[in-house]
UniProtKB/TrEMBL annotation:
Record's protein name: Glucoamylase
Domain Trehalase-like N-terminal span(s) in chain numbering: 2-126
Residue ranges constituting the GH15-like domain according to the UniProt record: 219-590
Source organism (scientific name): Streptomyces daqingensis
InterPro entries in the record: 6-hairpin_glycosidase_sf, 6hp_glycosidase-like_sf, GH15-like, Trehalase-like_N
One Pfam family here: Glyco_hydro_15
PANTHER family: GLUCAN 1,4-ALPHA-GLUCOSIDASE (PTHR31616:SF0), TREHALASE (PTHR31616)
SUPFAM superfamilies on file: Six-hairpin glycosidases
Length: 601
């Protein structure tokens, strides 16, 4: 049975990732890319769907869980330790950053004290647990083959096969180290080179040490910021610079529910906040790679902007259900692909333009196409900004005039007006100034409830939406505007959980019409909760902002990782994990509070 979502650790090589539980089991691993089929999929099913456990042997039904675990310093090298009646053992898990070599997952067992009986149990199941591979021995190496894929196991330990699983039983003593490595290779190619686990460990440690040294943030929340930056780096697909929203699919937003989506793609709305975080913490190279990915993905067809793309810029992300997987804690369906890619979400025009504006303002290397693209986007938006859409939350109900979408349309025009005013490009300055004013008036007249002194989710609605918290952050209105303060206070009253975190919107509307067209509830959305902390600081309630931020930090697991949401009833993380859209606003809020001097100690 899979562990709680927060029980998992992340390791990765900037092209794919793996989740490892407290019991030493790799329960999720896609090869060779984030969006490839999983070879270990027990996270969404049972052990029959593939896993790889390395840990002390046990006579009980449940494998023992590590007494301690940590990342080695500021790295993505995981160290888990078990205390047993016979001694203490450590397992070191990592994935070497990939260059020319094949994708590798390395597990080194190290004796600490006593003599501990150990077991490696490797059950590979390709195509998300559907396909049992053909396993054979070739020149002392174990290889599993199915269709286009092959996975090679290398170890000095003796192995044997039983029940369609490859086992290794051995005893580890103090100072001894036994390594296991799996490597992926296309099945029609020659075998991958035999790995050197110890050299790979040293190189991986050097990589992360050098990368973290570029971080320019040295404030009171450095530990949380650096861990979030490492997580963002781990979610980056290095060959293209795209960043996946999460390395998983179908981890539920409500345990046992149907709100289960594939997040192994790159969302354009992440562009502005990700660029901002990277630029403000010293990572200009990553920001540049992200901008170049953005330009390639959008190239050639900016009028038909998608809200998300594949990690190499792919546009076809067709959604399907894997009916042989029972889902995480019976949360079905399990989905791959994402049908929301075809939605109309006008806010992305604002987010892309904001990203390009930030890149321009912070002095990233000039790209003339970026400015041309910005003009083309506004040319499209000029004719379509007043249409209804599906909005930031990708609702699957009817299209509406979402206030956030209109605000972001205003952002797109405002940033482009500023670009023209700077003299870097030519454009219809007066016409677009008038357009900016028209959108602003429209939002303030149709999206604002005067009686309650709050903006609303959509025109004509009385419901609230946490995306309204971005109004002051985007500069649509100043923080001291009474309408901004009223909106922040209304969201605190009507969209906050008992423990003070923020829901995206009411899943059950006052008029009985579910805005997102789905059944069930969801947890508090962590990004929105960070936005609330930002707004509280902006409107002068700095101490309250700090307390909320530090409360949010307490929700991280023992390794500093956050999923998409928090279930206040079950007191556990829910949604895909770890979630870039949670870690980016964590960084931004830390920077804002540090600048304001609002921190404890």
């Amino acid at each position: 049975m899979a562990g709680r979502i927060e029980d998992y650790a992340l390791i990765g090589d900037m092209q794919t990732a793996a989740l490892i539980g407290r019991d030493g089991s790799v329960d999720w691993h896609c090869l060779p890319r984030f969006d490839s089929h999983a070879v270990f999929a027990s996270l969404l099913g049972t052990e029959e769907h593939g896993f790889w456990r390395v840990g002390p042997q046990s006579n009980g039904d449940e494998p023992p869980k590590a007494a301690r675990r940590r990342y080695r310093g500021d790295s993505l090298i995981l160290e888990s330790e078990w205390d047993t009646p016979r001694g203490t053992v450590r397992v070191i898990d990592f994935m070497p950053p990939r260059e020319q070599h094949a994708p590798q997952l390395v597990r080194i067992v190290e004796g600490v004290s006593g003599r501990v009986p150990m077991r490696s149990a490797l059950r590979m199941r390709f195509s998300y647990g559907w396909v049992v591979p053909w396993v054979q021995q070739i020149e002392g190496r174990t290889v599993a083959v199915a269709g286009p894929d092959s996975v090679w196991l290398d170890t000095e330990a003796d192995t044997y096969g039983k029940d369609l699983t490859t086992y290794s039983d051995f005893t580890i003593a103090p100072g001894e180290r036994v390594a296991f490595t799996i490597s992926w290779q296309a099945s029609h190619k020659s075998p991958p080179a035999e790995p050197d686990p110890e050299s790979a460990l040293e190189a991986t440690a050097d990589f992360w040490r050098e990368w973290v040294d570029h971080c320019t943030y040295h404030g009171p929340y450095r530990e949380a910021v650096v861990r979030s930056l490492i997580t963002l780096k781990a979610l980056t697909y290095a060959p293209t610079g795209g960043i996946v929203a999460a390395p998983t699919t179908s981890l539920p937003e409500c345990i046992g529910g149907m709100r289960n989506w594939d997040y192994r793609f790159t969302w354009l709305r992440d562009a502005a906040i990700t660029l901002s975080s990277l630029l403000r913490t010293g990572y200009h190279q990553e920001a540049l790679a992200w901008r170049e990915w953005l330009l390639r993905a959008v190239a050639g067809d900016p009028e038909n902007l998608q809200i998300m793309y594949g990690i190499a810029g792919e546009r076809e992300l067709g959604e399907a259900e894997l009916n042989w997987l029972p889902g995480y804690e019976d949360s079905t369906p399990v989905r791959i692909g994402n049908g929301a890619a075809g939605q109309l979400q006008l806010d992305v025009y604002g987010e892309v333009t904001e990203a390009l504006h930030l890149a321009h303002m912070t002095g990233l290397a000039r790209n003339d196409y970026a400015s041309l693209l910005q003009l083309k986007l506004i040319g499209y938006l000029e004719d379509h900004w007043d249409e209804p859409d599906e909005g930031i939350w990708e609702v699957r109900g009817p299209r509406r005039h979402f206030v956030h979408s209109k605000v972001m349309a205003w952002v797109a025009v405002d940033r482009t007006v500023k670009l023209i005013e700077s003299g870097d490009v030519d454009g219809p300055l007066e016409r677009w100034r008038d357009l900016r004013d028209e959108i602003h008036r429209d939002v303030c007249e149709k999206g604002y409830d005067k009686e309650r002194n709050t903006f609303t989710q959509s025109y004509g609605s009385r419901e609230l939406d946490a995306s309204l918290l971005l109004i002051p952050q985007m500069g649509f209105l100043p923080p001291d505007d009474k309408r901004v303060i009223g909106t922040v206070e209304a969201i605190q009253r009507e969209l906050s959980t008992e423990d003070g975190f923020v829901l995206r919107y009411p899943t059950s509307q006052l008029d009985g019409d579910n805005v997102d067209g789905l059944q069930g509830e969801e947890g508090a959305f962590l990004a929105c909760s960070f936005w609330l902390a930002d707004d509280l600081a902006m409107i002068g309630r700095v101490e309250e902002a700090r307390k909320l931020f530090e409360k949010l930090l307490s929700l991280r697991n023992d390794l500093g990782l956050l999923a998409e949401e928090w279930d206040s009833k079950l007191q556990r993380q829910v949604g895909n994990f770890p979630q870039a859209f949670s870690h980016v606003p964590l960084i931004d809020t830390a920077l804002r509070l540090t600048a304001s001097g609002a921190y404890g100690g």
